[in-house]
Amino acid sequence: MSPALVAALEGAAKIAFVWGVVLGAVLPNLIWVERRMAGLIQDRPGPNRVGPFGLFQAIADILKMFMKEDVVPMYADRLLHTVAPLILLVPSMATFAVIPFGSSIHLFDRDIPLVIADVNIGILYVFALTSIGIYGLVLAGWASNNKFALMGGLRSSAQVISYELAMGIAAISVFLAAGSLRLTKVVEYQASGTFLGFLPLWNCFPQALGCMIFVVSAFAETNRLPFDLPEAEAELVAGYHTEYSAFRFGMFFMAEYLNLIAASAMMATLYFGGWSLPGIHPSGIFGGLFSIAVFAVKTGFFIFLFVWVRWTLPRFRFDQLMNLGWKVFLPLSLLNLVVTGALVLWGVI
C-alpha cells in the first residue's frame, strides 16, 4: 500500500473518530447535561420524560427540528438567509482538525499521532476559522430584514472584535513560551518539566493572568452567558436568529455547542497540559487510550464550567462588556505578554 494511501486512510479514520465522538456522543449528551443542570440549579426536575432520566430528550428535539416547517420572512434575502448558518457551522466543525486529542497510538507497526492535521500554524488556523464564523452571525442578522436580528448581528461583531484581540495576545504568550505555533508542541512543552520546582509546567501557573483572560474571552467568543448580548432574549427576542426556524435554527444551535466544545478543548490544550499528566508517561496502545481519556476529562471540566456559569451569573450590559474588553483585558493581555517574555528571557519557563 502506497504511503499516500496509508496517510489518507489514517486521516479518514481520525476524522471519523473525532466526529463520531463529538456528534454522536458528546453533542447529544451535552444538550441533556445543560438542560438537566439548569433544572438542578433552578430547583426543578429538568428533562425527565423522554427515555430513562430524560436521556433521549436531545434526540427528540433534533427530530422535531427536522420535522418543523422552515419559514423564511417575505422580505428577507433568501440566499444569504440560507447560507448564513453554514458560514457559522462549517468553521466550527473544522476547528477540531488541529486540536491534539491524545499523544500517539502504535498500530500496524507505526506510531499514529492523535491529531487530524498537525500543521505548524495551528493557532493561526484556529483564529482564522473563528474570525470567519462571525460573518455567519452578521449576515444572519442583516439578511433577516429584522431590526432585532440586525442588532444582534452588530453586537456579535463588536463583541468578537473586542475579545478576540485580548484572547489572541494571551495565546501569543503561550506560543512564545513553547517556541512553536504547533499545538502538539505546546502540549509537549507543558509535559517537559516543572515550574518553580514543584508545580507542573502547565501554562495556567506561570501565565495565570493570560489563562484567566483566555477563559473569560472564550465565553465572549462563544456568546455564552454572561456575554450572550447578541441573543439577549429580554432585549432582542433571540437576536441574530430571531427569524430562523426548523433545521436552520438547529444549525445555529449546533454551531454554538460545537464552539463550546472546541473552546473547552483549546483551554485544556493551551493552559492545562492537554493530554498529559505530570509524572505519568504510559506508552503503547494503553498510553494512547490513557492520553485520550485525560484530554476528555479536562475538556469535560471546562464544558461543565461553561454550563455552570450560564445558569449562575447574570448578563452584562453592553457598555460593561465593551469596557471590560478594551479597558481591562487588552492592557492586561499586553502586560501578560511582557511578563512572559521576561520569564522566557531569564530561563524561568
List the helices and strands and how they pair.
Blueprint: H1 3-41, H2 57-67, H3 78-94, E1 104-107, E2 110-113, H4 122-143, H5 147-178, H6 183-190, E3 194-195, E4 199-200, H7 208-221, H8 233-236, H9 246-271, H10 284-310, H11 318-345
Antiparallel strand pairs: 1-2, 3-4
Helix pairs in contact: 1-9, 1-10, 2-9, 3-4, 3-9, 4-5, 5-6, 5-7, 5-11, 7-9, 7-11, 9-10
Outline:
With 349 residues, this protein is mainly alpha-helical.
Task: Describe the model.
- With 349 residues, the protein is mainly alpha-helical.
- The protein has helices at 3-41, 57-67, 78-94, 122-143, 147-178, 183-190, 208-221, 233-236, 246-271, 284-310, 318-345, and strands at residues 104-107, 110-113, 194-195, 199-200.
- The protein has two domains: 1-67, no CATH class; 75-345, no CATH class.
- The protein is built from eleven helices and four strands.
- α4 (122-143) runs antiparallel to α5 (147-178) and α5 (147-178) packs parallel to α11.
- The radius of gyration is 21 Å and the shape is globular.
- The N and C termini lie far apart (44 Å).
